[in-house]
From TrEMBL:
Coiled coil regions, renumbered to chain: 156-186
Gene3D superfamilies membership: P-loop containing nucleotide triphosphate hydrolases
Alphabetical list of InterPro entries matching this protein: P-loop_NTPase, RecF/RecN/SMC_N
Limits of the RecF/RecN/SMC N-terminal domain: 38-325
CDD domains: ABC_SMC_barmotin
Superkingdom: Bacteria
Region (Disordered) location: 35-56
Classification lineage: Bacteria, Pseudomonadati, Pseudomonadota, Gammaproteobacteria, Oceanospirillales
Keyword annotations: Coiled coil
Organism: Vreelandella olivaria
Protein name: RecF/RecN/SMC N-terminal domain-containing protein
Amino acid sequence: MTLKSVSLRIAELEESREMLLEPDELAGEELEELLHQREQQEGRLNATKQQAQGLAEQLRNDELARQQHERNLEQSREQLQQRRMDAQALALKAATQDEQLAELGHNVETLTEQLPQEATETRWQERLESTTDKIRRLGAINLAAIEEYDQQAERRNYLEAQHAELTEALETLERAIKRIDQETRVRFRETFDQVNTGLQTLFPRVFGGGAAWLTLTGDDLLETGVAIMARPPGKKNSTIHLLSGGEKALTALSLVFAIFQLNPAPFCMLDEVDAPLDDANVGRYARLVKEMSENVQFIYITHNKIAMEAAERLMGVTMQEPGVSRLVSVGIEEAAALVD
Protein backbone atom coordinates (compact mmCIF):
# COMPACT_ATOMS: atom_id res chain seq x y z
CA MET A 1 0.00 0.00 0.00
CA THR A 2 1.38 3.30 -0.99
CA LEU A 3 1.58 6.49 0.99
CA LYS A 4 -0.90 8.15 -1.24
CA SER A 5 -3.51 5.53 -0.64
CA VAL A 6 -2.84 5.69 3.05
CA SER A 7 -3.35 9.44 3.02
CA LEU A 8 -6.60 9.06 1.18
CA ARG A 9 -7.69 6.44 3.65
CA ILE A 10 -6.84 8.74 6.54
CA ALA A 11 -8.74 11.54 4.93
CA GLU A 12 -11.78 9.35 4.53
CA LEU A 13 -11.57 8.23 8.13
CA GLU A 14 -11.27 11.84 9.32
CA GLU A 15 -14.29 12.80 7.32
CA SER A 16 -16.21 9.86 8.72
CA ARG A 17 -15.16 10.77 12.26
CA GLU A 18 -16.31 14.34 11.81
CA MET A 19 -19.60 13.15 10.46
CA LEU A 20 -20.00 10.88 13.47
CA LEU A 21 -19.16 13.69 15.93
CA GLU A 22 -21.75 16.15 14.58
CA PRO A 23 -24.81 14.10 15.73
CA ASP A 24 -23.30 13.73 19.21
CA GLU A 25 -23.06 17.49 19.50
CA LEU A 26 -26.66 17.93 18.34
CA ALA A 27 -27.79 15.24 20.76
CA GLY A 28 -25.91 16.93 23.57
CA GLU A 29 -27.56 20.25 22.85
CA GLU A 30 -30.99 18.59 22.69
CA LEU A 31 -30.19 16.76 25.91
CA GLU A 32 -29.28 19.99 27.61
CA GLU A 33 -32.54 21.55 26.36
CA LEU A 34 -34.53 18.58 27.64
CA LEU A 35 -32.77 18.73 31.00
CA HIS A 36 -33.60 22.41 31.24
CA GLN A 37 -37.25 21.68 30.43
CA ARG A 38 -37.20 18.87 32.99
CA GLU A 39 -35.99 21.25 35.63
CA GLN A 40 -38.75 23.68 34.72
CA GLN A 41 -41.39 20.93 34.75
CA GLU A 42 -40.10 19.69 38.10
CA GLY A 43 -40.34 23.25 39.42
CA ARG A 44 -43.90 23.54 38.17
CA LEU A 45 -44.67 20.11 39.58
CA ASN A 46 -43.35 21.10 42.98
CA ALA A 47 -45.36 24.34 42.83
CA THR A 48 -48.45 22.38 41.80
CA LYS A 49 -47.89 19.90 44.62
CA GLN A 50 -47.58 22.75 47.09
CA GLN A 51 -50.73 24.34 45.66
CA ALA A 52 -52.48 20.99 45.85
CA GLN A 53 -51.41 20.61 49.46
CA GLY A 54 -52.72 24.15 50.17
CA LEU A 55 -56.03 23.33 48.46
CA ALA A 56 -56.25 20.07 50.38
CA GLU A 57 -55.62 21.94 53.60
CA GLN A 58 -58.25 24.56 52.64
CA LEU A 59 -60.64 21.76 51.68
CA ARG A 60 -60.18 20.19 55.12
CA ASN A 61 -60.78 23.59 56.73
CA ASP A 62 -63.88 24.14 54.55
CA GLU A 63 -65.14 20.71 55.45
CA LEU A 64 -64.66 21.47 59.14
CA ALA A 65 -66.43 24.83 58.64
CA ARG A 66 -69.26 23.10 56.76
CA GLN A 67 -69.68 20.61 59.55
CA GLN A 68 -69.70 23.48 62.05
CA HIS A 69 -72.29 25.36 59.91
CA GLU A 70 -74.44 22.25 59.75
CA ARG A 71 -74.30 21.96 63.52
CA ASN A 72 -75.18 25.68 63.80
CA LEU A 73 -77.96 25.26 61.22
CA GLU A 74 -79.40 22.36 63.16
CA GLN A 75 -79.34 24.45 66.31
CA SER A 76 -81.00 27.35 64.42
CA ARG A 77 -83.67 24.97 63.12
CA GLU A 78 -84.34 23.74 66.61
CA GLN A 79 -84.52 27.34 67.86
CA LEU A 80 -86.79 28.31 64.95
CA GLN A 81 -89.07 25.37 65.67
CA GLN A 82 -89.17 26.39 69.30
CA ARG A 83 -89.95 30.00 68.33
CA ARG A 84 -92.76 28.77 66.06
CA MET A 85 -94.23 26.74 68.85
CA ASP A 86 -93.94 29.71 71.19
CA ALA A 87 -95.55 31.97 68.56
CA GLN A 88 -98.41 29.49 68.08
CA ALA A 89 -98.91 29.34 71.81
CA LEU A 90 -98.89 33.14 72.06
CA ALA A 91 -101.29 33.43 69.07
CA LEU A 92 -103.64 30.92 70.69
CA LYS A 93 -103.42 32.82 73.96
CA ALA A 94 -104.02 36.14 72.16
CA ALA A 95 -107.02 34.70 70.29
CA THR A 96 -108.44 33.41 73.56
CA GLN A 97 -107.96 36.82 75.16
CA ASP A 98 -109.56 38.55 72.14
CA GLU A 99 -112.58 36.25 72.44
CA GLN A 100 -112.83 37.01 76.13
CA LEU A 101 -112.60 40.75 75.46
CA ALA A 102 -115.22 40.48 72.69
CA GLU A 103 -117.55 38.63 75.04
CA LEU A 104 -117.09 41.44 77.55
CA GLY A 105 -117.86 44.01 74.84
CA HIS A 106 -114.38 45.53 74.58
CA ASN A 107 -112.27 46.42 71.56
CA VAL A 108 -108.57 45.51 71.54
CA GLU A 109 -107.48 48.55 69.51
CA THR A 110 -109.45 50.92 71.73
CA LEU A 111 -108.00 49.38 74.87
CA THR A 112 -104.49 49.57 73.39
CA GLU A 113 -104.91 53.27 72.65
CA GLN A 114 -106.29 53.97 76.12
CA LEU A 115 -103.65 51.86 77.88
CA PRO A 116 -100.94 54.02 79.53
CA GLN A 117 -97.38 53.58 78.25
CA GLU A 118 -96.06 52.82 81.74
CA ALA A 119 -98.58 50.01 82.27
CA THR A 120 -97.14 46.63 83.28
CA GLU A 121 -98.67 43.23 83.79
CA THR A 122 -97.82 43.24 87.49
CA ARG A 123 -99.46 46.60 88.15
CA TRP A 124 -102.59 45.67 86.23
CA GLN A 125 -102.75 42.35 88.00
CA GLU A 126 -102.64 44.20 91.30
CA ARG A 127 -105.41 46.53 90.09
CA LEU A 128 -107.45 43.53 89.00
CA GLU A 129 -107.07 41.87 92.39
CA SER A 130 -107.95 45.12 94.13
CA THR A 131 -111.03 45.62 91.95
CA THR A 132 -112.06 41.99 92.46
CA ASP A 133 -111.76 42.44 96.20
CA LYS A 134 -113.91 45.59 96.04
CA ILE A 135 -116.55 43.76 94.01
CA ARG A 136 -116.52 40.90 96.50
CA ARG A 137 -117.07 43.34 99.36
CA LEU A 138 -120.05 44.87 97.50
CA GLY A 139 -121.94 41.65 97.97
CA ALA A 140 -124.67 40.31 95.67
CA ILE A 141 -125.14 42.07 92.35
CA ASN A 142 -128.29 42.35 90.29
CA LEU A 143 -127.24 40.52 87.13
CA ALA A 144 -130.39 41.63 85.35
CA ALA A 145 -129.14 45.21 85.57
CA ILE A 146 -126.55 44.47 82.87
CA GLU A 147 -129.23 43.34 80.47
CA GLU A 148 -131.40 46.31 81.38
CA TYR A 149 -128.45 48.62 80.90
CA ASP A 150 -127.77 47.12 77.45
CA GLN A 151 -131.41 47.63 76.46
CA GLN A 152 -131.42 51.21 77.69
CA ALA A 153 -128.07 51.89 76.01
CA GLU A 154 -129.40 50.51 72.72
CA ARG A 155 -132.52 52.67 73.11
CA ARG A 156 -130.35 55.71 73.89
CA ASN A 157 -128.13 55.06 70.85
CA TYR A 158 -131.24 54.77 68.67
CA LEU A 159 -132.67 58.03 70.03
CA GLU A 160 -129.32 59.79 69.65
CA ALA A 161 -129.11 58.61 66.03
CA GLN A 162 -132.66 59.84 65.41
CA HIS A 163 -131.85 63.14 67.10
CA ALA A 164 -128.71 63.54 64.97
CA GLU A 165 -130.70 62.84 61.79
CA LEU A 166 -133.43 65.28 62.79
CA THR A 167 -130.85 67.91 63.72
CA GLU A 168 -129.10 67.48 60.38
CA ALA A 169 -132.41 67.62 58.52
CA LEU A 170 -133.43 70.71 60.48
CA GLU A 171 -130.13 72.42 59.69
CA THR A 172 -130.51 71.51 56.03
CA LEU A 173 -134.07 72.82 56.05
CA GLU A 174 -133.00 76.04 57.77
CA ARG A 175 -130.24 76.56 55.21
CA ALA A 176 -132.73 75.94 52.40
CA ILE A 177 -135.22 78.36 53.97
CA LYS A 178 -132.55 81.01 54.35
CA ARG A 179 -131.48 80.53 50.73
CA ILE A 180 -135.11 80.66 49.57
CA ASP A 181 -135.78 83.75 51.69
CA GLN A 182 -132.72 85.45 50.27
CA GLU A 183 -133.63 84.59 46.69
CA THR A 184 -137.25 85.57 47.36
CA ARG A 185 -136.20 88.97 48.71
CA VAL A 186 -133.98 89.57 45.66
CA ARG A 187 -136.62 88.44 43.17
CA PHE A 188 -139.41 90.29 44.97
CA ARG A 189 -137.37 93.50 44.95
CA GLU A 190 -136.49 93.08 41.27
CA THR A 191 -140.09 92.26 40.35
CA PHE A 192 -141.45 95.12 42.46
CA ASP A 193 -139.10 97.61 40.85
CA GLN A 194 -139.93 96.41 37.32
CA VAL A 195 -143.68 96.42 37.93
CA ASN A 196 -143.43 99.84 39.59
CA THR A 197 -141.52 101.18 36.58
CA GLY A 198 -144.09 99.69 34.20
CA LEU A 199 -146.97 101.17 36.24
CA GLN A 200 -145.35 104.61 36.26
CA THR A 201 -145.01 104.39 32.45
CA LEU A 202 -148.47 102.97 31.63
CA PHE A 203 -150.59 105.03 34.03
CA PRO A 204 -149.98 108.41 32.31
CA ARG A 205 -150.65 106.81 28.93
CA VAL A 206 -153.96 105.36 30.13
CA PHE A 207 -155.12 108.51 31.91
CA GLY A 208 -153.48 111.03 29.62
CA GLY A 209 -151.38 112.32 32.50
CA GLY A 210 -151.12 111.97 36.26
CA ALA A 211 -148.87 109.59 38.12
CA ALA A 212 -149.05 106.25 39.92
CA TRP A 213 -146.54 104.19 41.84
CA LEU A 214 -146.24 101.27 44.21
CA THR A 215 -145.07 101.51 47.81
CA LEU A 216 -144.19 98.88 50.43
CA THR A 217 -146.11 98.89 53.69
CA GLY A 218 -143.28 97.33 55.72
CA ASP A 219 -139.53 96.89 55.87
CA ASP A 220 -139.45 93.08 55.71
CA LEU A 221 -139.77 92.09 52.06
CA LEU A 222 -141.16 88.68 53.01
CA GLU A 223 -144.06 90.08 55.07
CA THR A 224 -144.66 93.51 53.65
CA GLY A 225 -147.73 94.51 51.72
CA VAL A 226 -147.94 96.57 48.53
CA ALA A 227 -149.98 99.78 48.27
CA ILE A 228 -150.95 101.51 45.03
CA MET A 229 -150.69 105.29 44.97
CA ALA A 230 -152.61 106.78 42.01
CA ARG A 231 -153.16 110.43 41.14
CA PRO A 232 -155.12 110.99 37.92
CA PRO A 233 -154.60 114.37 36.26
CA GLY A 234 -156.36 117.17 38.15
CA LYS A 235 -156.78 115.23 41.41
CA LYS A 236 -154.84 115.17 44.68
CA ASN A 237 -156.40 112.17 46.35
CA SER A 238 -154.43 110.47 49.10
CA THR A 239 -155.82 106.96 48.61
CA ILE A 240 -157.11 104.84 45.74
CA HIS A 241 -160.43 104.41 47.52
CA LEU A 242 -161.30 108.03 46.64
CA LEU A 243 -161.19 107.27 42.89
CA SER A 244 -164.27 106.63 40.84
CA GLY A 245 -165.15 103.22 39.51
CA GLY A 246 -163.74 103.98 36.07
CA GLU A 247 -160.52 105.41 37.54
CA LYS A 248 -160.12 102.34 39.72
CA ALA A 249 -160.62 100.12 36.69
CA LEU A 250 -158.03 102.02 34.64
CA THR A 251 -155.58 101.96 37.55
CA ALA A 252 -156.07 98.22 37.95
CA LEU A 253 -155.68 97.81 34.18
CA SER A 254 -152.40 99.74 34.28
CA LEU A 255 -151.13 97.49 37.05
CA VAL A 256 -152.23 94.30 35.24
CA PHE A 257 -150.58 95.40 32.02
CA ALA A 258 -147.38 96.33 33.91
CA ILE A 259 -147.30 92.82 35.42
CA PHE A 260 -148.14 91.34 32.03
CA GLN A 261 -145.22 93.15 30.43
CA LEU A 262 -142.91 91.63 33.05
CA ASN A 263 -144.12 88.07 32.44
CA PRO A 264 -145.97 87.98 29.12
CA ALA A 265 -148.06 85.08 27.84
CA PRO A 266 -149.04 84.07 24.29
CA PHE A 267 -152.49 85.58 24.78
CA CYS A 268 -154.46 87.62 27.33
CA MET A 269 -158.21 87.50 27.97
CA LEU A 270 -160.10 90.53 29.35
CA ASP A 271 -163.73 90.24 30.40
CA GLU A 272 -165.83 93.42 30.44
CA VAL A 273 -162.88 95.53 31.56
CA ASP A 274 -164.29 98.60 29.82
CA ALA A 275 -167.75 98.34 31.45
CA PRO A 276 -167.24 101.13 34.03
CA LEU A 277 -165.33 103.41 31.61
CA ASP A 278 -166.65 106.40 29.72
CA ASP A 279 -166.05 106.79 25.99
CA ALA A 280 -162.84 108.81 26.39
CA ASN A 281 -161.31 106.27 28.72
CA VAL A 282 -162.51 103.40 26.53
CA GLY A 283 -160.58 104.97 23.69
CA ARG A 284 -157.41 105.12 25.80
CA TYR A 285 -157.96 101.53 26.87
CA ALA A 286 -158.46 100.42 23.27
CA ARG A 287 -155.31 102.26 22.11
CA LEU A 288 -153.25 100.63 24.88
CA VAL A 289 -154.53 97.18 23.93
CA LYS A 290 -153.77 97.96 20.30
CA GLU A 291 -150.17 98.88 21.13
CA MET A 292 -149.57 95.82 23.26
CA SER A 293 -151.21 93.49 20.71
CA GLU A 294 -148.00 93.71 18.66
CA ASN A 295 -146.42 91.23 21.10
CA VAL A 296 -149.45 89.59 22.74
CA GLN A 297 -152.74 88.37 21.32
CA PHE A 298 -155.69 89.92 23.23
CA ILE A 299 -159.12 88.40 23.52
CA TYR A 300 -161.56 90.69 25.29
CA ILE A 301 -165.24 90.53 25.88
CA THR A 302 -167.06 93.83 25.47
CA HIS A 303 -170.36 95.46 24.59
CA ASN A 304 -168.82 98.87 23.94
CA LYS A 305 -168.89 100.10 20.33
CA ILE A 306 -165.57 101.96 20.64
CA ALA A 307 -163.83 98.82 21.91
CA MET A 308 -165.44 96.81 19.11
CA GLU A 309 -164.19 99.26 16.51
CA ALA A 310 -160.62 98.90 17.83
CA ALA A 311 -160.66 95.12 17.42
CA GLU A 312 -159.25 93.37 14.35
CA ARG A 313 -161.84 90.60 14.38
CA LEU A 314 -165.26 90.35 16.05
CA MET A 315 -166.79 87.10 17.19
CA GLY A 316 -170.34 86.85 18.44
CA VAL A 317 -173.16 84.41 19.07
CA THR A 318 -176.39 84.73 17.16
CA MET A 319 -179.61 82.75 17.24
CA GLN A 320 -181.33 82.96 13.85
CA GLU A 321 -183.50 79.98 14.75
CA PRO A 322 -185.02 79.47 18.18
CA GLY A 323 -182.84 77.18 20.28
CA VAL A 324 -179.96 77.13 17.73
CA SER A 325 -176.89 79.24 18.52
CA ARG A 326 -174.30 80.01 15.91
CA LEU A 327 -170.84 81.53 16.25
CA VAL A 328 -170.22 84.40 13.86
CA SER A 329 -166.74 85.79 13.12
CA VAL A 330 -166.19 89.05 11.25
CA GLY A 331 -162.90 90.61 10.21
CA ILE A 332 -163.05 94.40 10.59
CA GLU A 333 -160.76 95.10 7.62
CA GLU A 334 -162.60 92.57 5.45
CA ALA A 335 -165.95 94.08 6.42
CA ALA A 336 -164.69 97.59 5.69
CA ALA A 337 -163.45 96.46 2.30
CA LEU A 338 -166.87 94.99 1.49
CA VAL A 339 -168.59 98.22 2.50
CA ASP A 340 -166.29 100.28 0.29
